[in-house]
Amino acid sequence: MSKHFCFCIPVRFAVFFFSLLSFLAAGASAALGWFIVYLINTNQLEKAETNLNDAQKKTFEDFVHKYKAGFIIAAVIFTLIALMSFFGFIGSIVRNRRMVKAYSYMTILIFVLGSAATGFSLYLTWSERSFCTTIDGTKTCLESHFSNGSKIGFTIGSIIQWLIDLYVVVAIRRYYEQLEEEREYRHDFRLKPTAGGTYEAKEGLMTEGHYPYSDNTNAFGSNQHA
């Protein structure tokens, strides 16, 4: 039986939509990260400094050179996220269980890391601690000037975003469980799969799935003989 999210939309569409969105966002972030690394390695940072004054250019160049390894790590991470999201996107189209499983695990990992980052952000917001960094011996600090109302608004927004992220993780996981159930159904009733590595749910991205026990061959009723 088809599982749903948002009350009536098949979870297959959730995987299709969120994996596509994740792929585009992570792909753009990875491209930006690798572009910055390329500019650093080729000494062409001026291409990214067109709207900066001389002081800002100096700060920007010092920052990217000091944290070059961080840009590389971030680019690698976003590249992996884009790759896993692509697996999820293709998996939602062809109903490939392994691809959707990989995407499901990735979203769980990202959710855990994102939850930790959200918790840290809330801690910094309410503790009013300064965030400081030192570049070429010069210490620069960013201080929180949020009012209590702003802090409450940020906290509420963070909680809502966390709940949405949790719901997305659950929806994707439910589609993987649906594919597992379809696989077990085929095994139990020895149905022939449509193609290697795919499972026939008879379900469109936005349409209700087919419930096999409603077939005449599987139903019990007036035609049953004693």
UniProtKB/TrEMBL annotation:
Record field: transmembrane: 69-90, 102-124, 152-176
Keyword terms of this UniProt record: Membrane, Transmembrane, Transmembrane helix
Stated name of the protein: Tetraspannin-domain-containing protein
Membrane topology: Multi-pass membrane protein
Organism whose genome encodes this protein: Lentinus brumalis
Location within or outside the cell: Membrane
Any Pfam family: Tetraspanin
One term under GO cellular component: membrane
Annotated InterPro entries: Tetraspanin/Peripherin
